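Sanity check

After download, print the first record. It should look like this:
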Amino acid sequence: MRTLIIVIVLLISISVTSQIDDRKLRIGYTAAAPFIVDNGDYADGLNFWLWKRVAKDLNIEYDMIPMEFPTLLDSLRTGGIDISINPLTITSQRSKEMEFTHSFYASNATIAIAEISSFDRLKSFIGSFLNFEFLSGLLILLFIIFLFGVLGWLFERRKNPDVFRPGGRGLWDGMWWSAVTLTTVGYGDKVPVTKSGKITALVLMFGGLLFISGLTASIASSLTVNQLTNNPDGFNEFKDRAVGTIGNSGTENFLSEHFFKDLHSYPNVPTGLKELNEGKIKAFIYDEPILKYAIQRDSTLHNLKLLPVKFDIQFYAFALPKTHVELEQRFTQRILEIMETEEWDIVLNEYGLAEF
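Expected structure tokens:
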């Protein structure tokens, strides 16, 4: 019985392979420069070059079928196409649904952000002083100056009238003395002579020293937080921000698994980078070589930059339906042979792709 089952499986496999060999292969792809560069009338890129080389060496006839990325994945699962030549990342979930050739390129994900202009930096710097903590601290500081200025004037106005004059001018003298004493400037132009005035000065000096130190620390902390907010350089800093990536991609799964709370999906990289450039999202996260190529080739995206952050190592390969095991083995063998040639290194450099 077991032998019969094995024979049936072999016959089915031979039949499927024979049917594939008797017709043109349906090759699905979607733009993912520099691996697949869609130039309108024709397509180019590293993956196109590799596929054409494999097809030529194996005498394979084929039809190229452009499609959106989600449709591409669905067609692979259902057998609507015979192979995807996109730089698909090999994941455990995808391996359950489709066959992969040997990986021909290793990469990683990174983060693209919009650089902040000098004017925006200035606004942000000024805005950091207009928060509740700073304004409340400033009001308390003014109240302390006023309170001790009044006390100093009350204690000194009779025995020290030349320094703390009567009336409104005397109140101003008290304010001036209080501010100078609190900030430890100490001009020495106004000095209390009464016992109560000196005690008031001592309380103001030591209490003011502690308060000014706390206020300075609060301002420094506010500026530091503001700088970190506008100049993020870590992966985890974006978990609570609006970030974008390609829908149904390995990067989207990675970000979801790492608890990114405000994740936006896009059908392609140009659309996502445009949204980032317009400020609709705070970052766009995807494969580094694809983001780098897109930003360099589009002059409207000069305001975007890639952070020096590398994560989620990815291995690219061609993908086939589960029924195309024998075909996958043939492609894998030829891809490995091509990768061992000097020509492969030359083509990588031509498309600006260094080995990971």
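If your output differs, re-run the checksum step. Summary of this record's structure: Residues 4-19, 227-231 have pLDDT under 50 and may be disordered.
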